Amino acid sequence: MTSVLQAQALGKKYGKRWALRECTVDIPAGHVVGLVGPNGAGKTTLLKLACGQLEPTGGGITVLGGRPGGTPAQLARVGFVAQDTPVYAGLTVAEHLRLGARLNPRWDAGLARERIARLALDPSHRAGRLSGGQRAQLALTLGLAKRPELLILDEPVASLDPLARHEFLQGLIEATVEHRFSVVLSSHLVSDLDRTCDYLIVLVESRVQVAGEVDKLLATHHRLTGSRRDPDRLPADQHMVSARHTDRQSTFVVRADAPIHDPAWKVTQLSLEDLVLAYMDKQTADSRRAALEVQR
């Protein structure tokens, strides 16, 4: 499988604090990849390293087979829309498009004009007068008209209202279908990833907890509910992801390649949000146990 981004033991340090440490990830081409994890997991740092905005403190990273931001040609292959969907408040919509044309050798002026017209953005309006949703759409237009092979979006809709989020993501989906490029989309909103992404990566404390095509992940993860029991009693082919217990009942999330037919359990399927929370909960529980062991 061809990769658009590969990182090996990647790290970035600010002073004495590690924002990303020992991160190893392999992101495949041809997908809309959802990157999800809690605050502080290292998502934004990873994406900025991938764009060449930051230099690693340790480890290595390649994007589309090259060093991020290493050459003008490499920069032209990657589009980036940051968290605050940055545009220049004092420039008009038309001036943004002219600037994009000057800076990007692969610029698709027709695509940019068509999107601006379809979105009913007045070319003479300054970006500072646009709504949050309109600024996000302008930023997306600039990223798409660059005609990248990889488009990276770092929580671009986090501050938008539901309608603006829907319109932004719908435009992204339509563009990926039409122009066939790879996307890495970071978001806290799992419902947005559910609508948009076909590949998932859960990143917690710089570590990839799970990665794979969404359909396959949902087909191989199950919730087991039944009488309380120790997780060590689970069959060897059922990998435990998370566990919760009451006095009488145990609920496990497990990963298993084969269907589970055990009358002792009520077996139910997971939603994407259930899956993400299970892996985040597992990491939280592991961290608590590690802290207790250190205290002892």
From TrEMBL:
<dbReference type="Pfam" id="PF00005">
    <property type="entry name" value="ABC_tran"/>
</dbReference>
<dbReference type="InterPro" id="IPR003593">
    <property type="entry name" value="AAA+_ATPase"/>
</dbReference>
<dbReference type="InterPro" id="IPR027417">
    <property type="entry name" value="P-loop_NTPase"/>
</dbReference>
<feature type="domain" description="ABC transporter">
    <location>
        <begin position="5"/>
        <end position="230"/>
    </location>
</feature>
<protein>
    <submittedName>
        <fullName>ABC transporter ATP-binding protein</fullName>
    </submittedName>
</protein>
<dbReference type="InterPro" id="IPR051782">
    <property type="entry name" value="ABC_Transporter_VariousFunc"/>
</dbReference>
<keyword id="KW-0547">Nucleotide-binding</keyword>
<dbReference type="GO" id="GO:0005524">
    <property type="term" value="F:ATP binding"/>
</dbReference>
<dbReference type="InterPro" id="IPR003439">
    <property type="entry name" value="ABC_transporter-like_ATP-bd"/>
</dbReference>
<dbReference type="GO" id="GO:0016887">
    <property type="term" value="F:ATP hydrolysis activity"/>
</dbReference>
<keyword id="KW-0813">Transport</keyword>
<keyword id="KW-0067">ATP-binding</keyword>
